[in-house]
Design a protein that fits this description.
The complex is a heterodimer of chains A (235) and B (299). In chain A, strand 7, helix 7 and strand 8 form a beta-alpha-beta unit. The relative contact order of chain A is 0.18. In chain A, the strands form 2 sheets. Chain A has a 6-stranded mixed beta sheet, sandwiched between helices. A 4-stranded antiparallel beta sheet of chain A has the order 2-1-4-5, covered by helices on one side. Chain A has 235 residues and is an alpha/beta fold. Chain A has 10 helices and 10 strands. Chain B is mainly alpha-helical and 299 residues long. Chain B is globular, with a radius of gyration of 19 Å. The relative contact order of chain B is 0.21. The model of chain B has no long low-confidence stretch (mean pLDDT 89). The chains are: A alpha/beta (235), B mainly alpha (299). At the A-B interface, helix 2 and helix 3 of A face helix 6 and helix 7 of B.
Chain lengths: 235, 299
């Protein structure tokens, strides 16, 4: 179980998160919603250990993660798919994926098995194995980023706006894959602008406003909540 | 083609191969830290003096000098990253650009290395390293090729090939590239980006140090021989600065051109040649011969 207990974080004089708490049980898919600048990405980056905490703590199965290096957090089973098109553009798809398995680099057979699994999940990537990542389409780059995160064999996957910049058809297909990954036992925390979609696929939702937790609840309840509907679902 | 001209071109290729290696040292640091390492020339100089020290005061065979210098100058590069770059980056907030402090720190390193070398013996008189190999020149038709020149080219090309294989074929090499191309991504994959940066600075030091041993027999050793960096910078600029194959071509080009300019216009023009070439390239093709589209970076 991943638990954020009253965490705060910021950049310079600007505070980005104030006393945010959330919980993700094993096997759950949880979504984190909110407007631009609400602190969604900062929350994920705090969990991944790339943005330092100013207060509160993050617990993975009861053990605090604060102060632990980013690489150790990946080793403990938390991987992040960052927002945008974050690949190594000058390297092949294969190399991008292999680097995702860096924390298991000594176990070569494990990397090979994991690579096969990723290619089975995204046959498209297999076809483009030797192409430079920078030459892939938006949808393929998103697959590559998810594949790269899976290479570290995470228990918990953090996803930052996977639907960004993709056509509705591609988003639909991508989310089918994400739901499948969750059904196969992967715990997922997903940040989304597309609140409608995120609440449909997740079991629980949190809504951030200006760095503070505004509300949270079962995804179905949130979808029916008139205030949430008005503010985030556009109805 | 006259035999003199051929000789001049061949000698240019030899020095050019060393310029290429120094340019690579500058470019890999630039790619990883976005800063120009102005101390690269002084690391060349220190590499040469380490070699001189072992040649004069021990009976270590010449081939063993290379690994010794490599270890020594790798340590200088890596230690500089730990002692200067890490604190600079730590003090900067995430949104400030640490570029200028890093560049100034490299100037500091350059002065420090020069100062340290000046106080040790061996610098009272200008000395050269013994030639890498001895023996009669090889004759091809009317053209004579000095064995020493050939050795320089062979060794630097071997080094360049070795680095190429390391950076593109090994996992560590790819991780070093990844940390330069997209540090955030690398960090999220669990790649220790800071340690990777240290290794890059170490390898850059190693490349420069080895160059010291290679140019040592051709140039006189003085604490000021780090000025060779201007030529390497010219090579990097010609190659497009962040383009590795480009800077290799740039190195060879400048080695040959410099010698030709010296031959046609007198040896005193050799020193000016790299600056003229930088100017011509920047005016006609600011992104370098192999660079992509021009990016203007405001600092």
């Amino acid at each position: 179980m991943l638990k954020l207990d009253n965490i705060s974080a910021g950049y310079g004089a600007v505070s980005a998160l104030e006393g945010v708490s959330l919980e993700i049980a094993d096997g759950q898919m949880v979504c984190l919603l909110g407007a631009n600048g609400a602190g969604k990405s900062t929350t994920l980056n705090c969990i991944s250990g790339v943005v330092p905490l100013r207060g509160g703590q993050i617990l993975l199965d009861g053990a605090p993660l604060a102060g632990i290096k980013a690489e150790e957090i990946v080793r403990r089973g938390i991987a992040q798919v960052p927002e945008g098109r974050e690949t190594y553009p000058g390297m092949s798809v294969h190399d991008n994926l292999v680097l995702g398995g860096w924390v298991h680099r000594r176990k070569r057979s494990l990397i090979r098995d994991e690579l096969d699994k990723v290619y089975a999940l995204f046959p498209r990537l297999k076809e483009r194995e030797q192409q430079h990542a920078g030459l892939l389409s938006g949808g393929e780059q998103q697959m590559l980023m998810i594949g790269r995160a899976l290479m570290s064999q995470p228990r918990i996957l953090l996803m930052d706006e996977p639907s960004l910049g993709l056509s509705p058809v591609l988003v639909e297909r991508l989310f089918e894959t994400i739901v499948q990954l969750n059904r196969d036992g992967l715990t997922i925390l997903i940040v989304e602008q597309n609140a409608q979609l995120a609440l449909r696929v997740s079991q629980y939702g949190y809504i951030l406003e200006n760095g503070e937790m505004a509300t949270h609840g079962n995804s179905d309840t949130l979808r029916r909540d008139p205030k949430v509907r008005e503010a985030y679902l556009g109805t | 083609m006259s035999t003199t001209l051929a000789l001049i071109i061949i000698s240019g290729i030899a020095t050019g191969s060393v310029y290429a290696l120094i340019a690579l040292s500058i470019v890999i640091v630039y790619k990883s830290s976005e800063a120009v390492n102005f101390a690269a020339g002084e690391v060349v100089m220190v590499g040469a003096y380490i070699a001189l020290f072992f040649i004069v005061s021990t009976s270590v065979p010449y081939w063993l000098i290379f690994p010794i210098v490599a270890i020594g100058t790798f340590a200088i590069g890596a230690a500089f990253e730990r002692a200067a770059i890490v604190p600079i980056i730590r003090r900067m907030s995430a949104r400030e650009n640490p570029l200028i402090p890093i560049v100034i720190a490299t100037f500091g390193l350059s002065l420090m290395l020069k100062g340290i070398v000046r106080v040790i013996p061996y610098t009272e008189q200008v000395r050269s390293l013994p030639p890498l190999v001895r023996g009669a020149p090889i004759r091809i038709g009317d053209v004579m090729i000095l064995r020493a020149d050939l050795a320089i080219v062979v060794i630097s090309v071997l080094f360049i090939l070795g680095f190429w294989i390391f950076f593109t074929r090994t996992l560590l090499g790819r991780a070093l590239q990844a940390s330069s191309q997209n540090p955030l991504c690398a960090q999220l994959s669990g790649i220790p980006v800071a340690r990777m940066r240290m290794i890059v600075w170490g390898i850059a030091g190693l490349m420069a140090g080895v160059c010291g041993v290679l140019v040592g027999p051709k140039l006189g050793l003085t604490p000021d021989m780090g000025g060779v960096i201007m030529v390497a910078l010219a090579a990097a600029v010609i190659g497009g600065f962040s383009n590795l194959p480009g800077s290799i071509v740039g190195g060879f080009t400048i080695g040959v051109l410099q010698n030709l300019i010296g031959y046609w216009f007198g040896s005193e023009t050799i020193a000016v040649a790299p600056f003229i070439m930088i100017m011509v390239v920047l005016v006609l093709r600011p992104q370098g011969l192999f660079g992509g589209p021009v990016h203007v970076k405001k600092v």
